[in-house]
């Protein structure tokens, strides 16, 4: 429904029932009626009754196939924040699960600010809530989508702030969850208000390009359908265009015109299964010429967010380029709805499944949270968090051929920590494509990376933190740096002045070895029969330094003993 204010509770229930047969209609209507009574005198900035907003959020979630609990929480998500209703009221009337979801979203809404430090703290709270119940962020995405659709009623400064946050944080989270459709709606909706002039230019130019190439694309589509019919392959074939914000990003990122975008148009071919996908690939490559360097097989190597399809750019009828996107019906559904395909309420209610869903899709965000607790710089935390959830990825391989997907710009250290904590902590040598390279070398698609480890922990350099991309690597490196700093503080250096004689140094060291204290460094100088011995140890809590000092002072010919902190 394009006009969001036309949504009714009947629409929500009907859509929910279509997508999920286990929906409890009565509970949803009860939640709606309670929300209406709580919001009855409230209006939105548009002048509409406030209930229009939770209704639209609930409809978005119903369309995604979410469960009764989440849809009820959507209808009630603002009552605790904006009315006299309490958590206890919701818990009593609708159960703990609904109340927890409402509480999770309410906490996030209360804390949203523009100050960087507040933002960092708020995002931490958001992802902690996500780890507990990932439906919190799905509800928040739906809430943000409807808010973006109604930005026209807000002041310009609020339009800019909300649009920027949507593109930088919410759309990438949707991408990370595999919710491609949600991501695109968020991006295009925010693009309209963040860069209105560019939005109009891109929209107008795209309409011109569609009009200009429509006939050729239809000819290409019809030929493909004819060839598939001859080969007795059942498939749905449709023409699509690149989304507006993606066009804008490509034009600005590569400094090109829309005419130079190779995948401006796509022909999507959806078929039964994987085998048919590869048969269709063969047919397309027989009748059309492929543009070199454009082939991507995400079926063989799926993206981190579960996306699977074959992509390649071909030269179609009358010389019009198009990107072929080949996938199965299941793959298309996963690409559109992402993680919401993978849990019904029955599957999701166990703690084990909650943890597995979060770990599989958002483990990098979990590492970011730990990093945020270790470092005091909120800017660094936010940068790392955004690196974890941005679309751009790099695909690299282990020597055995296992693929590792990392954020674009990742280094060999990121790779090492991606394999295992211990490998990163003990990295000794990095070999990329059979050549020994520095640890902070940026990785490229297709690189084969081998990590050699040693017994000693990696000598981490603080400046490396600026180069690595993943939160896991940064968190582990910060821990090692802090550990080394503590060791430095624990070191004690003894300086002994004495008359030089035979076995003096041996007698000094014996005092430490008898007390089972490891000597890290020993220096001895002699000048005109005067000996100066400098000896460094790692101080342990149980070491009695006063006792050691007294023993050293009792050694024959020792004149002075000092301890340097």
Secondary-structure content class? alpha+beta
The CATH homologous superfamily of the largest domain: Hypothetical protein af1432
Count of beta strands: 15
Strand content: 15-25%
User: Could you name the CATH class of the largest domain?
Assistant: Mainly Alpha
Query: How many structural domains are formed by the residues?
Result: 4
Our measurement of the CA-to-CA distance between the termini, rounded to an integer number of angstroms, reads: 72 Å
What share of residues is helical?
40-55%
Low-confidence parts: 110-115, 343-355, 357-365
Discrete helix count: 23
Radius of gyration over C-alpha positions, nearest whole angstrom: 31 Å
